[in-house]
Amino acid sequence: MTVRRLSGDGSAPKPRPGGEVNISAMRSRDLPQCRNRAHRLVMTQPDADAVPSDAVPWRALFLLGSASFASSAGLRFCDPLLPTLADAFRTTPGGAAVVVTAYAVAYGGFQLVTGPLGDRYGKVRMIALGATLCGLFTLACAFATSLEQIAVFRFLAGLTGAAIIPNCLAFIGDTIPLAQRQAVLARYMIFMSSGAISGQAVGGLLADAFGWPAAFVMVGGFMIAAGLTLTVQLRTNPVLSRRTAVPLGGLAGSFRQILASGRTPMGRLVLATVTAEAVLYIGAFTFVGAHLHDKFDVSFTVIGIMTALAAVGAVAYSSFAPMLLARFSQSSLLALSGLAFSVSFLVIALSPWLWPVGLAIVLCGGAFALFHNALQIMATQINPEARGASIATFAFCFFAGQTLGVLCTSVMFDRWGPEPIFLAAAVLMPAMALVFRTRLLAVQQA
Protein backbone atom coordinates (compact mmCIF):
# COMPACT_ATOMS: atom_id res chain seq x y z
CA MET A 1 0.00 0.00 0.00
CA THR A 2 1.26 3.48 -0.83
CA VAL A 3 0.16 6.88 0.41
CA ARG A 4 0.09 9.93 -1.90
CA ARG A 5 -0.65 13.54 -1.07
CA LEU A 6 -2.32 15.25 -4.01
CA SER A 7 -1.34 18.73 -5.12
CA GLY A 8 -3.78 21.42 -6.16
CA ASP A 9 -4.05 20.24 -9.78
CA GLY A 10 -4.66 16.66 -8.72
CA SER A 11 -1.14 15.43 -9.48
CA ALA A 12 1.31 14.18 -6.92
CA PRO A 13 4.19 16.53 -5.92
CA LYS A 14 7.59 15.43 -7.12
CA PRO A 15 9.39 13.42 -4.45
CA ARG A 16 12.84 14.18 -3.13
CA PRO A 17 15.62 11.69 -3.91
CA GLY A 18 14.79 9.71 -0.78
CA GLY A 19 11.19 9.32 -1.82
CA GLU A 20 9.86 12.04 0.53
CA VAL A 21 7.47 14.66 -0.80
CA ASN A 22 8.62 18.27 -0.40
CA ILE A 23 5.37 19.76 0.90
CA SER A 24 7.00 23.14 1.45
CA ALA A 25 7.79 23.38 -2.26
CA MET A 26 4.11 23.48 -3.14
CA ARG A 27 3.00 26.86 -4.41
CA SER A 28 0.98 28.99 -2.00
CA ARG A 29 -1.80 29.48 -4.52
CA ASP A 30 -2.34 25.71 -4.52
CA LEU A 31 -3.00 25.56 -0.79
CA PRO A 32 -6.67 26.72 -0.75
CA GLN A 33 -7.51 24.13 -3.38
CA CYS A 34 -5.67 21.51 -1.37
CA ARG A 35 -7.65 22.37 1.73
CA ASN A 36 -10.96 22.33 -0.13
CA ARG A 37 -10.76 19.23 -2.21
CA ALA A 38 -7.37 17.58 -2.59
CA HIS A 39 -5.64 17.80 0.77
CA ARG A 40 -6.30 14.23 1.66
CA LEU A 41 -4.56 10.88 1.82
CA VAL A 42 -5.41 8.42 -0.93
CA MET A 43 -4.66 4.81 -0.09
CA THR A 44 -3.83 2.52 -2.98
CA GLN A 45 -2.94 -1.12 -3.25
CA PRO A 46 -1.92 -3.52 -5.97
CA ASP A 47 -4.86 -5.13 -7.69
CA ALA A 48 -5.10 -8.81 -6.80
CA ASP A 49 -5.46 -9.64 -10.48
CA ALA A 50 -2.06 -8.02 -11.11
CA VAL A 51 -0.30 -10.36 -8.70
CA PRO A 52 1.84 -12.99 -10.49
CA SER A 53 0.08 -16.33 -10.73
CA ASP A 54 2.89 -18.08 -8.86
CA ALA A 55 2.71 -15.67 -5.90
CA VAL A 56 -0.06 -17.39 -3.95
CA PRO A 57 0.83 -16.93 -0.24
CA TRP A 58 0.18 -20.50 0.87
CA ARG A 59 1.66 -20.02 4.34
CA ALA A 60 -0.63 -17.08 5.06
CA LEU A 61 -3.62 -18.99 3.70
CA PHE A 62 -2.78 -21.97 5.91
CA LEU A 63 -2.79 -19.74 8.99
CA LEU A 64 -6.12 -18.22 8.01
CA GLY A 65 -7.48 -21.67 7.21
CA SER A 66 -6.54 -22.84 10.70
CA ALA A 67 -8.55 -19.97 12.19
CA SER A 68 -11.49 -20.90 9.93
CA PHE A 69 -11.17 -24.54 11.00
CA ALA A 70 -11.55 -23.43 14.62
CA SER A 71 -14.47 -21.14 13.73
CA SER A 72 -16.36 -23.93 11.94
CA ALA A 73 -15.72 -26.30 14.84
CA GLY A 74 -17.01 -23.66 17.25
CA LEU A 75 -20.20 -23.30 15.26
CA ARG A 76 -21.09 -27.01 15.33
CA PHE A 77 -19.45 -28.67 18.34
CA CYS A 78 -22.36 -27.96 20.73
CA ASP A 79 -24.84 -29.99 18.65
CA PRO A 80 -23.90 -33.40 20.15
CA LEU A 81 -23.59 -31.86 23.63
CA LEU A 82 -27.29 -31.01 23.96
CA PRO A 83 -28.36 -34.26 25.72
CA THR A 84 -25.40 -33.97 28.12
CA LEU A 85 -26.12 -30.32 28.87
CA ALA A 86 -29.79 -31.13 29.36
CA ASP A 87 -28.92 -33.75 31.99
CA ALA A 88 -26.36 -31.51 33.69
CA PHE A 89 -28.73 -28.55 34.06
CA ARG A 90 -32.00 -30.50 34.44
CA THR A 91 -33.74 -29.36 31.30
CA THR A 92 -34.75 -30.80 27.94
CA PRO A 93 -32.53 -30.98 24.85
CA GLY A 94 -34.80 -28.34 23.34
CA GLY A 95 -34.15 -26.09 26.31
CA ALA A 96 -30.42 -26.74 26.11
CA ALA A 97 -30.48 -25.73 22.44
CA VAL A 98 -30.37 -22.10 23.60
CA VAL A 99 -26.55 -22.44 23.60
CA VAL A 100 -26.71 -23.20 19.86
CA THR A 101 -29.28 -20.52 19.08
CA ALA A 102 -27.42 -17.82 21.03
CA TYR A 103 -24.23 -18.41 19.06
CA ALA A 104 -26.00 -18.62 15.68
CA VAL A 105 -28.02 -15.41 16.17
CA ALA A 106 -24.97 -13.40 17.23
CA TYR A 107 -22.77 -14.95 14.56
CA GLY A 108 -25.21 -14.25 11.74
CA GLY A 109 -26.28 -10.77 12.79
CA PHE A 110 -22.82 -9.40 13.57
CA GLN A 111 -21.49 -10.23 10.08
CA LEU A 112 -22.68 -6.80 8.96
CA VAL A 113 -20.41 -5.18 11.55
CA THR A 114 -17.24 -7.26 11.32
CA GLY A 115 -16.93 -6.85 7.54
CA PRO A 116 -16.72 -3.02 7.61
CA LEU A 117 -14.43 -3.24 10.65
CA GLY A 118 -12.12 -5.46 8.61
CA ASP A 119 -12.09 -2.91 5.79
CA ARG A 120 -11.33 -0.14 8.27
CA TYR A 121 -8.76 -1.69 10.61
CA GLY A 122 -7.34 -4.58 8.60
CA LYS A 123 -8.90 -7.94 7.82
CA VAL A 124 -6.24 -10.15 9.41
CA ARG A 125 -6.16 -7.96 12.51
CA MET A 126 -9.91 -8.49 12.90
CA ILE A 127 -9.50 -12.24 12.33
CA ALA A 128 -6.77 -12.49 14.97
CA LEU A 129 -8.74 -10.42 17.49
CA GLY A 130 -11.97 -12.28 16.77
CA ALA A 131 -10.37 -15.72 17.12
CA THR A 132 -8.68 -14.81 20.40
CA LEU A 133 -11.79 -13.30 21.99
CA CYS A 134 -14.04 -16.08 20.68
CA GLY A 135 -11.66 -18.61 22.21
CA LEU A 136 -11.68 -16.83 25.57
CA PHE A 137 -15.49 -16.68 25.69
CA THR A 138 -15.70 -20.35 24.64
CA LEU A 139 -13.22 -21.30 27.35
CA ALA A 140 -15.31 -19.37 29.88
CA CYS A 141 -18.26 -21.65 29.11
CA ALA A 142 -16.35 -24.55 30.69
CA PHE A 143 -16.46 -22.77 34.06
CA ALA A 144 -20.11 -21.66 33.87
CA THR A 145 -22.43 -22.80 36.65
CA SER A 146 -25.74 -22.43 34.79
CA LEU A 147 -27.15 -22.88 31.32
CA GLU A 148 -27.91 -19.16 31.17
CA GLN A 149 -24.24 -18.32 31.74
CA ILE A 150 -23.22 -20.66 28.94
CA ALA A 151 -25.78 -19.01 26.64
CA VAL A 152 -24.37 -15.55 27.43
CA PHE A 153 -20.78 -16.64 26.80
CA ARG A 154 -21.84 -18.39 23.60
CA PHE A 155 -23.58 -15.21 22.43
CA LEU A 156 -20.38 -13.24 23.03
CA ALA A 157 -18.38 -15.95 21.27
CA GLY A 158 -20.70 -15.63 18.27
CA LEU A 159 -20.24 -11.86 18.17
CA THR A 160 -16.46 -12.15 18.06
CA GLY A 161 -16.30 -15.32 15.97
CA ALA A 162 -18.26 -13.56 13.22
CA ALA A 163 -15.06 -11.70 12.33
CA ILE A 164 -13.20 -14.80 11.17
CA ILE A 165 -14.61 -16.43 8.03
CA PRO A 166 -16.00 -13.36 6.18
CA ASN A 167 -12.71 -11.49 6.59
CA CYS A 168 -10.79 -14.59 5.49
CA LEU A 169 -12.85 -14.70 2.29
CA ALA A 170 -12.34 -10.96 1.77
CA PHE A 171 -8.57 -11.36 2.32
CA ILE A 172 -8.47 -14.08 -0.34
CA GLY A 173 -10.35 -11.76 -2.69
CA ASP A 174 -7.83 -8.98 -2.03
CA THR A 175 -4.79 -11.23 -2.41
CA ILE A 176 -5.46 -13.97 -4.97
CA PRO A 177 -5.77 -13.29 -8.72
CA LEU A 178 -9.27 -13.92 -10.08
CA ALA A 179 -8.05 -16.70 -12.37
CA GLN A 180 -6.84 -18.70 -9.36
CA ARG A 181 -9.40 -17.57 -6.82
CA GLN A 182 -11.96 -20.35 -7.24
CA ALA A 183 -9.35 -23.11 -6.85
CA VAL A 184 -7.85 -21.40 -3.79
CA LEU A 185 -11.29 -20.89 -2.22
CA ALA A 186 -12.08 -24.55 -2.84
CA ARG A 187 -8.97 -25.56 -0.91
CA TYR A 188 -9.84 -23.06 1.80
CA MET A 189 -13.23 -24.77 2.14
CA ILE A 190 -11.40 -27.95 3.20
CA PHE A 191 -10.55 -26.21 6.47
CA MET A 192 -14.16 -25.12 6.98
CA SER A 193 -15.63 -28.54 6.18
CA SER A 194 -13.03 -30.36 8.26
CA GLY A 195 -13.76 -28.03 11.17
CA ALA A 196 -17.47 -28.81 11.00
CA ILE A 197 -16.78 -32.57 10.98
CA SER A 198 -14.22 -32.35 13.79
CA GLY A 199 -16.41 -30.11 15.92
CA GLN A 200 -19.32 -32.54 15.88
CA ALA A 201 -17.21 -35.68 16.28
CA VAL A 202 -14.61 -34.53 18.81
CA GLY A 203 -17.13 -32.56 20.85
CA GLY A 204 -19.20 -35.67 21.48
CA LEU A 205 -16.17 -37.87 22.18
CA LEU A 206 -14.68 -35.46 24.72
CA ALA A 207 -18.03 -35.02 26.44
CA ASP A 208 -18.39 -38.80 26.81
CA ALA A 209 -14.82 -39.28 28.03
CA PHE A 210 -14.21 -36.25 30.24
CA GLY A 211 -17.51 -34.38 30.59
CA TRP A 212 -19.02 -31.49 28.66
CA PRO A 213 -16.54 -28.82 29.91
CA ALA A 214 -13.72 -30.63 28.10
CA ALA A 215 -15.28 -29.84 24.71
CA PHE A 216 -15.35 -26.12 25.48
CA VAL A 217 -11.73 -26.23 26.71
CA MET A 218 -10.57 -27.97 23.54
CA VAL A 219 -12.34 -25.68 21.07
CA GLY A 220 -11.57 -22.52 23.06
CA GLY A 221 -7.90 -23.42 23.38
CA PHE A 222 -7.56 -24.07 19.66
CA MET A 223 -9.17 -20.72 18.84
CA ILE A 224 -6.90 -18.85 21.24
CA ALA A 225 -3.85 -20.56 19.74
CA ALA A 226 -4.96 -19.62 16.21
CA GLY A 227 -5.61 -16.01 17.21
CA LEU A 228 -2.30 -15.56 19.01
CA THR A 229 -0.38 -17.17 16.14
CA LEU A 230 -1.93 -14.71 13.69
CA THR A 231 -1.14 -11.83 16.04
CA VAL A 232 2.54 -12.81 16.07
CA GLN A 233 2.59 -13.34 12.30
CA LEU A 234 1.13 -9.88 11.72
CA ARG A 235 4.48 -8.45 12.84
CA THR A 236 6.62 -10.62 10.60
CA ASN A 237 4.53 -11.59 7.55
CA PRO A 238 4.10 -8.68 5.10
CA VAL A 239 1.27 -10.43 3.27
CA LEU A 240 -0.83 -10.69 6.42
CA SER A 241 -0.06 -7.16 7.59
CA ARG A 242 -0.96 -5.46 4.31
CA ARG A 243 -3.80 -2.95 4.63
CA THR A 244 -6.37 -2.30 1.91
CA ALA A 245 -7.96 0.97 0.90
CA VAL A 246 -10.57 2.34 3.28
CA PRO A 247 -13.84 3.46 1.66
CA LEU A 248 -14.36 7.22 1.82
CA GLY A 249 -16.27 8.17 4.94
CA GLY A 250 -14.69 5.57 7.24
CA LEU A 251 -17.08 3.12 8.88
CA ALA A 252 -20.11 5.12 7.73
CA GLY A 253 -18.80 4.77 4.19
CA SER A 254 -18.43 1.02 4.69
CA PHE A 255 -22.06 0.72 5.75
CA ARG A 256 -23.07 2.71 2.68
CA GLN A 257 -21.09 0.18 0.66
CA ILE A 258 -23.19 -2.58 2.25
CA LEU A 259 -26.34 -0.91 0.97
CA ALA A 260 -24.71 -0.42 -2.42
CA SER A 261 -23.80 -4.12 -2.68
CA GLY A 262 -27.34 -5.02 -3.71
CA ARG A 263 -27.75 -2.22 -6.25
CA THR A 264 -25.57 -3.62 -9.01
CA PRO A 265 -26.87 -6.40 -11.29
CA MET A 266 -24.15 -8.75 -10.06
CA GLY A 267 -24.84 -7.86 -6.42
CA ARG A 268 -28.57 -8.45 -6.74
CA LEU A 269 -28.03 -11.75 -8.50
CA VAL A 270 -25.48 -13.13 -6.03
CA LEU A 271 -27.26 -12.00 -2.86
CA ALA A 272 -30.66 -13.24 -4.05
CA THR A 273 -29.18 -16.59 -5.09
CA VAL A 274 -27.28 -17.23 -1.86
CA THR A 275 -30.46 -16.46 0.09
CA ALA A 276 -32.44 -18.92 -2.05
CA GLU A 277 -29.66 -21.50 -1.73
CA ALA A 278 -29.77 -21.30 2.06
CA VAL A 279 -33.58 -21.46 2.17
CA LEU A 280 -33.72 -24.57 -0.03
CA TYR A 281 -30.59 -26.50 0.92
CA ILE A 282 -30.31 -25.82 4.66
CA GLY A 283 -34.08 -25.93 5.06
CA ALA A 284 -34.21 -29.40 3.52
CA PHE A 285 -30.99 -30.87 4.89
CA THR A 286 -31.90 -29.94 8.46
CA PHE A 287 -34.47 -32.76 8.47
CA VAL A 288 -32.32 -35.50 6.96
CA GLY A 289 -31.50 -36.81 10.46
CA ALA A 290 -35.16 -36.93 11.49
CA HIS A 291 -35.98 -38.70 8.22
CA LEU A 292 -33.31 -41.36 8.83
CA HIS A 293 -34.53 -41.95 12.37
CA ASP A 294 -38.19 -42.28 11.36
CA LYS A 295 -37.72 -44.34 8.20
CA PHE A 296 -34.76 -46.59 9.05
CA ASP A 297 -34.94 -46.57 12.88
CA VAL A 298 -31.18 -46.02 13.23
CA SER A 299 -29.37 -44.78 16.32
CA PHE A 300 -28.33 -41.20 16.85
CA THR A 301 -24.69 -42.24 16.43
CA VAL A 302 -25.47 -43.52 12.92
CA ILE A 303 -27.43 -40.35 12.20
CA GLY A 304 -24.44 -38.24 13.21
CA ILE A 305 -22.12 -40.23 10.96
CA MET A 306 -24.57 -40.11 8.05
CA THR A 307 -25.16 -36.36 8.20
CA ALA A 308 -21.41 -35.74 8.52
CA LEU A 309 -21.02 -37.38 5.10
CA ALA A 310 -22.14 -34.08 3.56
CA ALA A 311 -18.94 -32.50 4.85
CA VAL A 312 -17.01 -35.45 3.40
CA GLY A 313 -18.54 -34.62 0.02
CA ALA A 314 -17.51 -30.99 0.43
CA VAL A 315 -13.93 -32.01 1.22
CA ALA A 316 -13.92 -34.35 -1.79
CA TYR A 317 -15.02 -31.54 -4.11
CA SER A 318 -12.45 -29.17 -2.62
CA SER A 319 -9.70 -31.73 -3.22
CA PHE A 320 -10.64 -32.25 -6.88
CA ALA A 321 -11.65 -28.64 -7.59
CA PRO A 322 -8.42 -27.59 -9.36
CA MET A 323 -8.77 -30.51 -11.79
CA LEU A 324 -12.49 -29.86 -12.39
CA LEU A 325 -11.95 -26.13 -12.92
CA ALA A 326 -9.18 -26.83 -15.42
CA ARG A 327 -11.30 -29.30 -17.39
CA PHE A 328 -14.80 -27.78 -17.31
CA SER A 329 -16.20 -24.29 -17.69
CA GLN A 330 -17.96 -22.60 -14.78
CA SER A 331 -21.23 -22.76 -16.69
CA SER A 332 -20.90 -26.54 -17.06
CA LEU A 333 -20.08 -26.98 -13.37
CA LEU A 334 -23.15 -24.96 -12.35
CA ALA A 335 -25.34 -27.19 -14.50
CA LEU A 336 -23.64 -30.25 -12.98
CA SER A 337 -24.36 -29.01 -9.46
CA GLY A 338 -28.06 -28.63 -10.29
CA LEU A 339 -28.22 -32.19 -11.60
CA ALA A 340 -26.41 -33.49 -8.50
CA PHE A 341 -28.86 -31.66 -6.20
CA SER A 342 -31.82 -33.24 -7.99
CA VAL A 343 -30.45 -36.79 -7.92
CA SER A 344 -29.30 -36.64 -4.30
CA PHE A 345 -32.55 -35.30 -2.84
CA LEU A 346 -34.61 -37.76 -4.89
CA VAL A 347 -32.57 -40.67 -3.50
CA ILE A 348 -32.81 -39.33 0.06
CA ALA A 349 -36.59 -39.06 -0.27
CA LEU A 350 -37.37 -42.33 -2.07
CA SER A 351 -34.64 -44.91 -1.40
CA PRO A 352 -35.85 -47.96 0.58
CA TRP A 353 -32.25 -48.79 1.58
CA LEU A 354 -29.87 -46.89 3.82
CA TRP A 355 -26.62 -47.20 1.88
CA PRO A 356 -27.82 -45.27 -1.23
CA VAL A 357 -28.91 -42.48 1.11
CA GLY A 358 -25.34 -42.28 2.43
CA LEU A 359 -23.98 -41.93 -1.10
CA ALA A 360 -26.63 -39.34 -1.89
CA ILE A 361 -25.63 -37.28 1.15
CA VAL A 362 -21.99 -37.30 -0.02
CA LEU A 363 -23.13 -36.18 -3.48
CA CYS A 364 -25.36 -33.51 -1.97
CA GLY A 365 -22.51 -32.10 0.11
CA GLY A 366 -20.23 -32.00 -2.92
CA ALA A 367 -22.89 -30.24 -5.02
CA PHE A 368 -23.41 -27.65 -2.30
CA ALA A 369 -19.66 -27.01 -2.05
CA LEU A 370 -19.41 -26.59 -5.83
CA PHE A 371 -22.35 -24.19 -6.10
CA HIS A 372 -21.53 -22.21 -2.96
CA ASN A 373 -17.90 -21.90 -4.04
CA ALA A 374 -19.05 -20.27 -7.29
CA LEU A 375 -21.21 -17.83 -5.33
CA GLN A 376 -18.28 -16.97 -3.06
CA ILE A 377 -16.18 -16.10 -6.11
CA MET A 378 -18.87 -13.73 -7.37
CA ALA A 379 -19.25 -12.22 -3.89
CA THR A 380 -15.57 -11.24 -3.86
CA GLN A 381 -16.20 -9.19 -7.02
CA ILE A 382 -19.40 -7.37 -5.99
CA ASN A 383 -17.51 -4.38 -4.59
CA PRO A 384 -13.70 -4.73 -4.64
CA GLU A 385 -13.27 -1.33 -2.94
CA ALA A 386 -15.11 -2.61 0.16
CA ARG A 387 -14.67 -6.35 -0.13
CA GLY A 388 -15.08 -6.96 3.60
CA ALA A 389 -18.46 -5.23 3.63
CA SER A 390 -19.56 -7.15 0.52
CA ILE A 391 -18.60 -10.54 1.96
CA ALA A 392 -20.31 -9.63 5.23
CA THR A 393 -23.52 -8.84 3.35
CA PHE A 394 -23.19 -12.15 1.50
CA ALA A 395 -22.75 -14.06 4.78
CA PHE A 396 -25.67 -12.24 6.40
CA CYS A 397 -27.97 -13.19 3.50
CA PHE A 398 -26.85 -16.81 3.83
CA PHE A 399 -27.64 -16.93 7.55
CA ALA A 400 -30.96 -15.11 7.05
CA GLY A 401 -31.87 -17.65 4.38
CA GLN A 402 -31.06 -20.52 6.75
CA THR A 403 -33.42 -19.11 9.37
CA LEU A 404 -36.23 -18.60 6.87
CA GLY A 405 -35.69 -22.02 5.31
CA VAL A 406 -35.84 -23.93 8.59
CA LEU A 407 -38.98 -22.04 9.61
CA CYS A 408 -40.70 -23.02 6.35
CA THR A 409 -39.60 -26.65 6.34
CA SER A 410 -40.52 -27.05 10.01
CA VAL A 411 -44.13 -26.31 9.10
CA MET A 412 -43.95 -28.70 6.14
CA PHE A 413 -42.41 -31.45 8.28
CA ASP A 414 -45.13 -31.22 10.94
CA ARG A 415 -47.92 -31.32 8.33
CA TRP A 416 -46.70 -33.69 5.63
CA GLY A 417 -43.47 -35.34 6.83
CA PRO A 418 -39.97 -35.10 5.33
CA GLU A 419 -40.51 -36.60 1.85
CA PRO A 420 -42.31 -33.55 0.36
CA ILE A 421 -39.47 -31.34 1.62
CA PHE A 422 -36.84 -33.40 -0.21
CA LEU A 423 -38.95 -33.71 -3.37
CA ALA A 424 -39.46 -29.95 -3.44
CA ALA A 425 -35.70 -29.45 -3.04
CA ALA A 426 -35.07 -31.95 -5.86
CA VAL A 427 -37.09 -29.71 -8.19
CA LEU A 428 -36.28 -26.23 -6.90
CA MET A 429 -32.52 -26.60 -6.34
CA PRO A 430 -31.70 -27.44 -10.00
CA ALA A 431 -34.14 -24.73 -11.12
CA MET A 432 -32.26 -22.24 -8.95
CA ALA A 433 -28.92 -23.37 -10.41
CA LEU A 434 -30.28 -23.04 -13.97
CA VAL A 435 -31.67 -19.54 -13.34
CA PHE A 436 -28.40 -18.42 -11.75
CA ARG A 437 -26.38 -19.84 -14.64
CA THR A 438 -28.56 -18.08 -17.21
CA ARG A 439 -28.65 -14.75 -15.41
CA LEU A 440 -24.90 -14.87 -14.73
CA LEU A 441 -24.15 -15.24 -18.43
CA ALA A 442 -26.47 -12.31 -19.18
CA VAL A 443 -24.84 -10.08 -16.55
CA GLN A 444 -21.33 -10.96 -17.71
CA GLN A 445 -22.20 -10.19 -21.33
CA ALA A 446 -23.94 -6.89 -20.51
UniProtKB/TrEMBL annotation:
Pfam families linked: MFS_1
Transmembrane intervals: 126-145, 151-172, 184-206, 212-234, 269-292, 298-320, 332-351, 357-379, 391-413, 419-436
Molecular-function annotations in GO: transmembrane transporter activity
Membrane topology: Multi-pass membrane protein
Gene3D superfamilies assigned to the protein according to its UniProt record, in alphabetical order: MFS general substrate transporter like domains
Region (Disordered): 1-22
Ranges for domain Major facilitator superfamily (MFS) profile: 60-444
A Gene Ontology term for the protein's cellular component: plasma membrane
Protein name listed in UniProt: MFS transporter
Source organism: Phreatobacter cathodiphilus
Lineage: Bacteria, Pseudomonadati, Pseudomonadota, Alphaproteobacteria, Hyphomicrobiales
